[in-house]
Amino acid sequence: MSGQAIIDSLEFARTAQELQGKVPIAEMPRLHDCVLDTGGAVDFTLTGGRDGRNRRGLHLEVNGVLHLRCERCLGLLDFPVSILSDLLLLESAADFDREAELDEPADTIDADPQLDVGGLIEDEILLSLPISPRHAEGECEYTAEALAAVRDTAFAALAGLKK
Ligand SMILES: [Zn+2]
Prior knowledge:
alpha+beta
């Protein structure tokens, strides 16, 4: 089962369905600007059900590792993805307004008869990414390749100044 599944979200929740699968990073183009390479994949489990107030929602778990680029050394930074999301399905704008007024509003998505599961997973991963990915202090490794990249960037900046 790949992430290219399309589900009717309300029906999926009503009938408490479960979907498991794997989505290759290569199939999530919106992540490509953020990663060093598009290797790897994430595993997911999507479960439909109802919350404590009998409202329909989706529970999403995503686990995997993304290959980010460390901003300091430009080297590979393995970033573990571990997402647990409960998403309330909104059927109308009134639903949204009601939820927004609560002290602790639930995370929500619009109910969609053709929800793209891969797209949803991609959204959730994008939300979980660090703004400025870096290795922990002292854990950077300056490879020859990274140093060359830093040098090229510096030369390019210099060349730009000279123009
Ligand atoms: Zn680093």
